[in-house]
Amino acid sequence: MRARRRIPAALWAALIAGVVSVGCSGSGEAQKPSEPSEGATSGASAAVRPQPTAEGNKAEGDTLKIGIVVPINGDQKPWGDDALNGAQIALEDFNKQGGIAGKKVELVIGDSGSNTEQAKSAAEKLISDGVLGIIGDVTSSNTIQIAKSAFEKGVPVVSIGATNDDVTKQGANVFRVCYIDSFQGEVMAEFAYRDLGLRNVALLTDRKQAYSVGLSNSFRKHFEQLGGKIVGEEFYETKQTTFTGQLTNLKAKNPDGLFLSGYFPEVGPIVKSAKAAGLNVKFLGGDGWDSKEILNSGGEAIVGGFFCNHYNNKDSRPQVQHFLKRWKEKVGGEPGTTMAALGYDAMAVILDALKRCQSYDSKSLAAAIEETENFPGVTGDLTLKGQNGNPRKRALVVEVRPLPDGFVMRKAIEPKDLSQ
Amino acid sequence: MALRVRIASILAGLAGCWLLDALCRGLLRESEQRLVVLAGLYVTLAVSLNLINGIAGQFSIGHAAFYQIGAYTAGYLAFFYYGKLPLQGVPWLVAMLLLGMITAALAGLVVGLPSLRLRGDYLAIVTLGFGEIIRIVVQAIDLTAPTGEQVGGALGMNVEPRIRIIGLVWLFALTCIAVTRNLCKSSHGLALLSIREDEIASAAMGVQVPKMKVAAFMIGSAFAGGAGVLLAHSESFISPSMFPMDLSFIVLTMVVLGGSGSITGAVIAALTLFYVPEYLRGLKAPDGTALTATGASLLGWVAAVVAAVVVVRWLAYRYRGTARQRALGYLLTAVGVLVLGRLLGWGLSFLPALQQAEYEVQKLRMVIFAGSLIVIMLVRPEGVLGRHEFSWDRLARVLRRQRPKEATG
Amino acid sequence: MAPGAGLSLAAALDFGTLPSQVVNGVLNGAIYALIALGYTMVYGVLRLINFAHGEVYMLGAYTALFVSWAYGFRPDVPPDQLPESSLATLLVMMLASMAVCATVGVLIERFAYRPMRNQARISSLITAIGVSLLLQYGGGLFLPQNPPPTMNERVNPYRQTLELTLVGAPRELSQAVEAAREEFQKAERAFEERLQAEKDRFNLSPEGERLRDAKFEAERRLRDAESRLNSAQVTVRVSAGRLAILLASLALMFLLRQLVLFTPTGRAMRAVSQDFDSAALMGVNVDRIVTITFVIGSALAGAGAMMTATFLGTSITPYYGVLPGVKAFVAAVLGGIGNIPGAVLGGLLMGLAETLVIWAGYSQFADAVAFVVLIVVLLFRPGGLLGSSAVEKV
Known about the structure:
The structure holds three protein chains of three kinds. Chain A is an alpha/beta fold. In chain A, 40% of the residues lie in helices and 17% in strands. Chain A has two domains: 63-179 and 316-389, Response regulator (Rossmann fold, 3-Layer(aba) Sandwich); 182-309 and 397-417, 3-Layer(aba) Sandwich (Rossmann fold). Chain A has a seven-stranded mixed sheet with strand order 7-6-8-9-10-13-14, sandwiched between helices. In chain A, strands 2-1-3-4-5 form a five-stranded parallel sheet, sandwiched between helices. In chain A, strands 11-12 form a two-stranded antiparallel ribbon. The radius of gyration of chain A is 23 Å and the shape is globular. The relative contact order of chain A is 0.14. The model of chain A is unreliable at 1-46 (pLDDT under 50). Chain B is globular and about 70 Å long. Chain B has two domains: 2-281, ABC transporter involved in vitamin B12 uptake, BtuC (Orthogonal Bundle); 292-399, no CATH class. Chain C is built from 14 helices and two strands, in the order H-H-H-H-H-E-H-H-E-H-H-H-H-H-H-H. The N and C termini of chain C lie far apart (58 Å). Classes of the chains: A alpha/beta, B mainly alpha, C mainly alpha. Chains in contact: A-B, A-C, B-C. At the B-C interface, helix 5, strand 1, helix 8, helix 10 and helix 15 of B face helix 5, helix 12 and helix 14 of C.
C-alpha cells in the first residue's frame, strides 16, 4: 500500500521536473510548423514552396557524394532493385562521357526497407555522411519522410516514383522525375471519356496504398468534371488473393469501364476474376500496372486494357533504345518495372545539374536542379524550371496486347493537350 | 532512509537524462540523435509490454495498437487544436503525453476486459486482432481539415510542430522502468507475479485477479501510448504503415529475448535488437563501398554458428558447472565461432561457384536479424537474463567464482 | 473522395447479389479452412502457434510455380507456344508442393521447435517468429521475385465459368439484349472497316469520329439492355477453378478426418493431443506422431498454396503467406484451436463474414471484420466455437 501512493507522486515529480529542467536548459526544440503550400496541384501554377533554411552539405575533397534511398529489403524490393540498377547505369554513362573533370561522383546506397521509419533513418544517415543530394524513394509515403529530413537539412531530393501530389509540397528542395497522380488521373479520365466513350466507370482501389487512393480520387474528380459517372467504388488491400466479393458488387452496378488504380500484382488477378464474374468491360489503370508480369497474371483478360505510363520499350526515342541496350549489358533481359527508367532519369537529372553547378554544395545543386529545362530523359523530355518540383513531361497511354507485342503505345499526351 | 534514496534516485535520473540530452546534442549528428530517441521509445515499449507479458503473465501480442493510439491521439489533436490553445511547445507535448496515456489506458481497459475470460493463446489472438482493427480503421478514416486539406488514411498525416527532446523521451522511459520496478517490489507486484504463476491459486490466496489483470493492461498500454505521442511529435509524421503487426512481434521478441519478467533484460534486448539492424546498415568495406560477403564466407559462418549451437546445447545438457564456468564456456564458443567461421569460409572459397556469389551485407541484415533470434532462443530459451535482473553483484559473483544465490522472483 | 462517400454509395443493400456473395464466401472460406487445419493440428499436438506455417505455404506456392516452369509454362513463352495442361500436370504440381512443404515442416520442427519443447511456450513462439522472418527475408534473397512471378493461367485446364440462373428474367429483356448486340456488332463492323482507311487510330478523321461515336452509342444501348436484364435476374457465377479448390479441399479434409478417426496413427495423434506425457507413457512414440502431424499439416498448406497459386493466380512473393497465414490462424482460433472440424467451420465462417461485409458495401473494413467476429465469438465462447473451454483444475 505504501508503494502505491508513492508511484504516481514519483511519476508526477519526474515529469514536471523533467519539463522544467529541459525548459531551463533552453534545449527545448519546438520548430515552427512548415505549412505546406495550398493550391496548385498540377504544377503549372505558381505556388510558393517553403525554402529550406539550412545550409546543406558541402563536398569534401574530390568526391561528390550522391545518396540513393530505395527499398532493397522488404516487399517493395523489386521496385527498389530496378531503380538502383537504373541509377547505377546512369552514373556509369555519365562517367563514360567524361563526368566532371577532377571530381569523382560516388553513389551512396541507403536501404528504406520498404517502410517509412527506415526510409527516414536511411535518409538521415546519408545526409550525415555528407551527400549533396538524395535520390529516392520509389513510393510516395517513403519519399515524404525523406523529403522532411532533407528539408530540415537543406539537401535536395529527386524522387523516383512518388506520384502523390503532396510530396513536393514539403519544400522547394523536393523534386521528382515522374508525373503526378492528378495528371495521370486526368489523362486516363480524358482518354476513357473521349477516346473510349465510357460514361459509367467503377473504381477498385487498394486502400493500403496512398498511391492508389490518390489516383482513384483524381480519376473520379476529372471523370465527373467531364460529365461521366462513377457508379461505385470498392476497396481491397495489397496481398489479398480473392476479389470476388468486390467484383460481384460492381457487376451489379453495370459499369462500362473499371478503373484499377492499384499495383500489377493485384491488378492481374482482379482482371481475370472480373472476367469470370461476367464484367466484360474496359479495364483502365495507372503506372502501377507497368510490368511485363501483368501479361502473365492478367492472362487473356488483361488484353485490351489501357494504362498510363512514363515510357514504353517500343519507343523509338534514342534515349529509350540506349537505356534498354545498357540494361541488357549490365543487368540482363529487360527491366521488370518502370522504376528502372525513372531511377536512371532521377540520377541523370542530378548529374546534369551537378555539371552546371558553380560550387559543389547542396544549395547550388538544388538551384541547378530547379533550372533543369527540356532534359532528354528516358521517360521523356522533362522540365523542372518553375514547376514546383513536378516535372512538365508527357504521359503515354499504353494498350496491353498479347505477347510478343506486350505494351503498345497508343497515345502520348502532353500537359497542354488536356482540355482543362 | 527509503525516502532519501528515492529522492536521490529521482534526482539522479533527472540529471542523467539532462546529461544524455546535452551529450547527444553536443556529440551526435542529428540522424544519430533520432536513433537515440527511437531507442528510448523501443525501451519504453519493451518495458511496458514486459509488465503485461512478463510480469502479469498475460499473453499480449498487439502492443503496436496502443503505440498507434497514442500517436494518433497526438496527431489528430495537434492537427485540429495546435495553435488554438494557449499551450505551445513543450507544455503542449506534456499535455499530449498525458492525454495519449489516458486514451491508450482506456484502450487497454477495453483489451484487458476480455483477458478476464480468455487465457493464453486465445487472449494473444484477441490482442493481435485488436491491433489489426485499429490499423485498418485508422487507414480507412479520411479527415478533412478546416482548410479543405485531406489528412489521415493510408498516406498518413503530418504532426506539427516537431518537438524532439532526447532527455524527455529517456525520462519517460526511465519513468516507465521506475514504475514497473516499484510495482514489482510492492504488494501489488507480488500479486501480479502470483497471477503469472498460478491464477487459481492466487485467487484462492485473496488476490483480486480481475482487477490486477486489467490494471496491468492499463498501465502497460498507457506507457505505450505515451511513447506513441513522443514518436508522433519527434518524427512529426505518422501513418498506419508505421504500426504493422511486425512491430508488435519485434517488441514481444525484445521482452522474451531479454528474459520474460526481467526489466533490465527487456531494456538490454530492446537496445540490442534496435541497434543491430542499424549497425548492419552502415557497414562498409575499407575502400568505402558497401560491404559484401561471398557465398563461401556466408556458408562458413552459418556452419560455424550451427556447430556452436550444437556444442552449447550439448554442454548445457551434459554439464552443469558454476556460473563462471558457464560464462567461460560461452566465451570459448564465441571465439570458436570466429575461428571456425573464418576457416570454413576460407576452405569453401576454393569452390568457384560459392566464391563468385556475392551478397551485400545491407541486403542480408534482416536475415541476420532473424537468424540470431533463433540462435539465441536455442542457446538460451529463458532469455538472456532469464527472470533475473542485471546486477553488478551478480556479475561480480560470477567473476569471483562463487555460486550465485538461488534467484528470487 | 469526400469522407464517407464510399459509405453512402452502398447504403442500399442489393439482395440480388446476395446468393453470389454467399457462394463467394464459402469458396474463400474453403481456402482459409485448408490452411487453418495445419495450425490447428500442430496446436492440438504441441500447444504451439506455428507462426512459420504461412511461410511453409509460401514455399508451396513457389514449388508449384517451379514445377509449372519445368513443364514449360514460363512467363516469356508466347501464348501459342505453350504446352497443353491436364489434370495430371495439376496433380504432379500438387504432390510436389505437398512433398516440399512436408519436408520443410519436418525440418523446422526437428531443428527449431523440438529443442524448445521443454521450454516456456513463449520461447517456442519467439523461435517460430524467428523462423518465419528467416524464411521471409531469406526468400527475399534467393527466390525469384522481380517482378513477382505469377502462375501462367494456361496451367489451369479448367478456365470456364459456370453460370447458374436462380431467378430468370422475362423473355423480352433477353430478346432486347440480343437485338442491341446485333446493332452494336453492325456499328462496330462499320467502324472497323473505316479504321482500315484511317492512318492513326486515335486521331480520327471527322467521318471516323462519327462512326466511332455511333459505335459508342450502340455499345451504350447494349449495356443498358444488359443492365436491365441483369437487375431482373439472379445469377450465380463461379469459375471452375474456384469450384475445384472447394472440391479438392473437401476431399482432403475428408481424408484427414478418416485418418484421424480410423487409423492407429490417428488414434495416437488424438492421444498425444489429449495428454502429451500420458500418451508417451502408454507407449506412443511421441516424436514420430509430432513429425507426422507436421507432415500432414504442412502438406495441406502445400496443397492449398498450389491451388490458390494456380486457380486464383495472384503474384507469388516471399510474403505470400503472411496474410493467408494470419487469416487462417484466426479461423483456427475461431473454430476452437486444436479442433479439426472447428478449423473447417471457422474458415467457412470467416470467408462468409468477410464477403458479407463487402456485400454490405464496407469493403475497406473487410480485413478487420475477421477480427471483430473473432473477438465477439471468444467473449461468448472463450474456447472458440467447437473448442472445449476446459476449466482449469487445481
